[in-house]
């Protein structure tokens, strides 16, 4: 599971966490039954307030993404399945539109923008596993 917070992003930390977990479930990276780190462990790893992590987990549970198992902790709901490619676009479309607009405004052509993505893919998509 890869999670990180962007301190430059105006999106609240709890929402950043929710969005990332939802994207990983939709992509199949987090599969049904996968256990999530404890609230304390994740809060320490991400340097967050434990109440913020708890709030994120609770909202995801309320929406059916996660389920709390007594004595086990939080896990991905058994009913969740990876989304189809068309459905996954929903999770990146806003960021993609913003990136394309920014690249265009900076004077990058379509091919230069694609080269930027290819050049920086490893840096921004690298695994940062949480144990």
UniProtKB/TrEMBL annotation:
Native source organism of the sequence: Salinivibrio kushneri
InterPro entries noted in UniProt: Tscrpt_reg_HTH_GntR, WH-like_DNA-bd_sf, WH_DNA-bd_sf
All residue ranges annotated as the HTH gntR-type domain in the record: 11-79
Coiled-coil boundaries: none
Keyword Repressor: no
SMART domains tied to this protein: HTH_GNTR
GO molecular function, one term: DNA binding
Segment forming the signal sequence: none
Keyword list, A-Z: DNA-binding, Transcription, Transcription regulation
UniProt keyword Magnesium, yes or no: no
Domain of life from the UniProt record: Bacteria
The protein, known as: GntR family transcriptional regulator
Gene3D superfamilies referenced in this protein's UniProt entry, alphabetically: Winged helix-like DNA-binding domain superfamily/Winged helix DNA-binding domain (1.10.10.10)
């Amino acid at each position: 599971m890869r999670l990180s917070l962007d301190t430059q992003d105006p999106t609240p930390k709890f929402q950043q966490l929710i969005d990332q977990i939802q994207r990983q479930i939709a992509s199949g990276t987090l599969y049904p039954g996968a256990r999530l780190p404890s609230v304390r462990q994740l809060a320490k790893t991400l340097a967050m307030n434990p109440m913020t992590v708890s709030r994120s987990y609770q909202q995801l549970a309320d929406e059916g993404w996660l389920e709390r198992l007594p004595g086990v902790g939080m896990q991905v709901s058994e009913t969740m399945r990876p989304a189809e490619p068309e459905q996954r676009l929903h999770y990146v479309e806003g960021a993609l539109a913003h990136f394309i607009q920014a690249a265009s405004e900076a004077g990058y052509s379509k091919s230069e923008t694609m080269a930027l993505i290819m050049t920086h893919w490893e840096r921004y998509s690298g695994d940062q596993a949480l144990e």
